[in-house]
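Hi Y.,

Following your request, here is the sequence exactly as I used it, all 141 residues.
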Amino acid sequence: MILHGSIDDKNQLWVPIIVAGEHGQQKISALLDTGFTGELQLPLQIAVPLGLKLVGVASYKLADGSVSKQMLFSASINWGTKTRLVTASVVMDAEDVLMGVSVLHGYALLVDFKQKQLVIKEPGTDDPQIADSPESTEQKP
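Below is the corresponding structure, written out as tokens. Let me know if you'd prefer a different format.
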């Protein structure tokens, strides 16, 4: 299956996912953070109502060099045709949901900043292409 995300005015990549726990599920837009090697980071106000299960604590080195200790929870994410169990770090002072590169393992990602299009190919799907792009119709040597 070919999945579609969006690119905002700040050139940030967003993907729609459904996050589920023991008490419910919520459809959200996750910021695709290629500098985040984890799977998912959730704000506390999203994680608690879903009833996610605590599985541990971890320390993360942030981009500014500081270290943040975060609680880790088990969550299910529905993305495209796949449902998978992920480890989500939960933070009190975050507003956005972050999806890390660990979730993308096996996927192909095609980003066209000029046309503001984000295409993600699930494993086993034909090559993704950006719609109406001259480059997408050219033959590869």
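The chain is about 10% helix and 50% strand.

Thanks again,
Q.
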